[in-house]
Amino acid sequence: MMKLLTLTPFVAAVVASSLQLGDVEIFARQNDPITSLVNDITTLTKSVVDLGDTVGGFTGISEAGTVATKAQTVQDNLQTAADNAKKAPTLDNNGALALAVPAQALNEAVVSTLDKITAKKDVFASASLTSVVAQLLEKDNQLAGDYSTALFSKVPAELKSTAMKIVQPSLDKLQKTVDDFKAAAGGSMSSGSSSVMTSRERSNVERFFLRGSRYDFDVLNDAQ
C-alpha cells in the first residue's frame, strides 16, 4: 500500500508529461508552416473561384451585393495569407516545392476569374460600377503584391525564379486588368479621388466605400 502511494505521484507526473507532449505534438501538426501555407493558398483559390463564378453570372446592380461579398472574402483571405507568410520561417527546398502545385492552381484560378471580370466590363459600366471595380482591383493588386513578396522571401534563393514563373502570369494579368478598368473609368484614380467618376458612380462609391473596411453593396440594391 505504501509503495502504491509512493508511486502514485510519479505515475501522475508521467501521465501529465505524456499529455503535455501530446499537446505539443498536436500543436506542432496544426501549426506546421508548410501545411499552414498550403491551406492559405487552397482557401484563397476557392474564394477566387467562387468570385469568378459569381461574376460570371452578374447581370446588373441587383447582384452587386453578392459580388461585393465574394470580393471581400478574397481580400480577407489575401490579407490572412500575407500575414501568415510574413510570420512563416524560411522554407527549405522540399517545403518550397510543396507549394508549387497549389500555387499553380491559384494562378490558374486568378487568370480565369480576371477573364470573367473583363468579360463583364460592359455590364459593370451599365451599372455605373466601372470605377468601383477598378478600385476593388487596385486593392487586390496591392494585397497580391504584399502576399507574393512575403511568400517569395521564404523561398530558397535557388528556387525563387521557378516560383516567380508559376505566379507571374496571374500578377501580370491582375495589373493589366487594373489598368484596363482604370482606363475605362477615365484614367488615373485612387480610393480617395472621385474626380473621374460620374455623379452616380460617386454616389455609389460614397455609399459603401466610406462606410468602413467592408464593402456594402446592399445599399446599392436597396437604392435602385
Automatic annotation (TrEMBL):
Keyword terms of this UniProt record: Signal
GO cellular component: extracellular region
Keyword Signal: yes
Coiled-coil boundaries: none
Keyword hit for Cell membrane: no
InterPro entries assigned: Cell_wall_mannoprotein_1
Descriptive protein name: Uncharacterized protein
Endpoints of the signal sequence: 1-16
Any matching Pfam family: HsbA
